[in-house]
Write a structure and sequence with these properties.
single chain; 151 residues; alpha+beta; 5 strands; 30% helix; globular
Length: 151
C-alpha cells in the first residue's frame, strides 16, 4: 500500500467507528496543515465563515456555534440529512482552500457526536472561549471570528 503524501501517522484512526446520522449534532475540529496561521488574515477567516454559512443556506448543516482560530476551526453543527458529515466537511475544506488559493487543511478531522443529554450551551461556550484560552483576546467580544445561536 502506497503511503499518502504528508499523511499523519494516526489520521486513519480518526475514521474508525465514524458514522453520520441525519439530525445528529457534531462537535468538529479541523486543523490547518502544519498549524500555519492562515486565518490570522481577516479576509481568509471571513471567507471560511461565509462558506460555513452557505452550508446552512444549502440546507446541509445547521451551525450552532463556531470559532475560527488562526490555525484551526471548531464547529458545532447539526446535519440535516442531505449530506454526510464527511461530505459537508469535504465541501467546506475544498471551497475554503480554493478561496485561499492553495491547499491549507490537514488530512482528516476530529469529530464527536453530541449525545442529546449533553448541555449544548456549555459546549458552545467552550468552543467560543478558545480565543480567551489561547490568549488572543481578554474578552470574547474582542475576537471577530465566532458565533453561537445562544449568545
Amino acid at each position: 500500500m502506497k503511503a499518502q503524501k504528508n499523511a499523519k501517522p494516526h489520521s486513519k484512526d480518526l475514521r474508525k467507528g465514524r458514522f453520520s446520522a441525519p439530525n445528529q449534532i457534531y462537535s468538529v475540529t479541523i486543523n490547518i496543515e502544519d498549524r500555519i496561521p492562515v486565518f490570522k488574515d481577516f479576509n481568509a477567516a471571513r471567507g471560511l465563515i461565509n462558506i460555513m454559512r452557505n452550508e446552512q443556506t444549502l440546507g446541509r448543516a445547521n451551525t450552532l456555534a463556531f470559532v475560527v482560530m488562526p490555525d484551526h476551526l471548531h464547529w458545532l453543527l447539526q446535519l440535516t440529512g442531505q449530506m454526510s458529515l464527511s461530505k459537508v466537511l469535504q465541501s467546506v475544506k475544498g471551497l475554503s482552500a480554493k478561496k485561499v488559493g492553495r491547499p491549507i487543511w490537514q488530512e482528516g478531522y476530529h469529530d464527536r457526536a453530541v449525545r442529546r443529554e449533553e448541555d449544548l450551551l456549555s459546549i458552545a461556550r467552550y468552543i467560543v472561549a478558545n480565543p480567551l484560552r489561547a490568549g488572543l483576546v481578554k474578552k470574547i467580544g474582542e475576537y471577530p471570528h465566532w458565533d453561537a445561536i445562544w449568545l
